[in-house]
Amino acid sequence: MRFTKTDTVFALLALATLASWWLGEGAAVGGQHLGTAATLAVLALAAFKGALIALDYMELRHAPALWRRAVMGWLAVVLGVIALVGVGLRG
Predict the structure, then answer these.
(1) Are 70 and 91 spatial neighbours (Cβ–Cβ below 8 Å)?
(2) How far apart are CA 38 and CA 35, in angstroms?
(3) Which long-range contacts (CB under 8 A, 24 or more apart) does 74-81 make?
(4) What is the pTM of this model?
(5) Residues of the domain holding 61
(6) Residue 67 to residue 24: CA distance in whole angstroms
(7) Contact at 8 Å (CB) between 36 and 90?
(8) Does residue 16 sit in helix, strand or coil?
(9) Total structural domains within the chain
(10) Per-residue model confidence as pLDDT tens digits over 35-79
(11) CB within 10 Å: which end of the chain, N or C, has fewer?
(12) DSSP state of 57
């Protein structure tokens, strides 16, 4: 059996999902909120997953640069706002 790039991307997405679930579930079991570092780690995993989906599954890797920049910029802005609001509410 030969693995393709799509298989590798799928495996990375699954691992990132498990990692973010583990971070969130650990806080939920303890009855606490995620710490700032864990929250930022979950957002970093979300950025990683979003980039993989946009570039590989939506095939933006081979799209014109304007589309790629627009989608990746949108992702960065949305995650940045979430990070600022999430960390701002705690601090």
Answers:
(1) no
(2) 5
(3) 75/47, 75/50, 75/51, 76/47, 79/43, 79/46, 79/47, 79/50
(4) 0.82
(5) 5-90
(6) 32
(7) yes
(8) helix
(9) 1
(10) 778 888 889 999 999 999 999 999 999 999 999 999 999 999 999
(11) N
(12) I
